[in-house]
Amino acid sequence: MTIDRKIRARSALALALPLMLLAGCTPNDTGIGNAVHSNNMAQIVDPEPEYADALTASGNQTAAAQDRYVKGTVTKPTRVNTTSGSGSSGSGGGSGSSSGGN
Fold first, then answer.
1. Are 74 and 67 in contact (CB under 8 A)?
2. Which end of the chain is more exposed for a tag (fewer CB within 10 A), N or C?
């Protein structure tokens, strides 16, 4: 082998070796990122909702709402109670001795 061939062989090896090492660093697992996807799906109530009627927007309604907003005459939303019945917000006390036992 001449010196020129030795230099070429070493140069090729010097280029090929890092490429082979980097190829070992590539992820082969296609499940990477499934945890993020799973967490997102757990927080979405219905990712593909089905509606009985097509959702439509009325241009007249939108224009009227915009006019009310500009004029400052927007109707305030009514308060909606999400629970029914009466509840107490006090803390429940326990019955017991506070003297400490002997």
1. no
2. C
Give the pTM. Answer: 0.28
Q: If DSSP codes are grouped into helix, strand and coil, which group holds residue 80?
A: coil
Collect all residues with Cβ–Cβ distance below 8 Å to 75 and sequence separation of at least 6: 68
Per-residue HEC secondary structure of 10-57 comes to HHHHHHHHHHHHHHCCCCCCCCCCHHHHHHHHHHCCCCCCCCCCCCCC
Q: What is the pLDDT of residues 9-59, one digit of tens each?
A: 888 888 888 888 877 776 666 677 788 888 888 888 887 888 778 778 889
Say which DSSP state 59 is in.
Answer: H
What integer pLDDT is reported at residue 85 of this predicted model? 64
Q: Which amino acid is at 34?
A: N
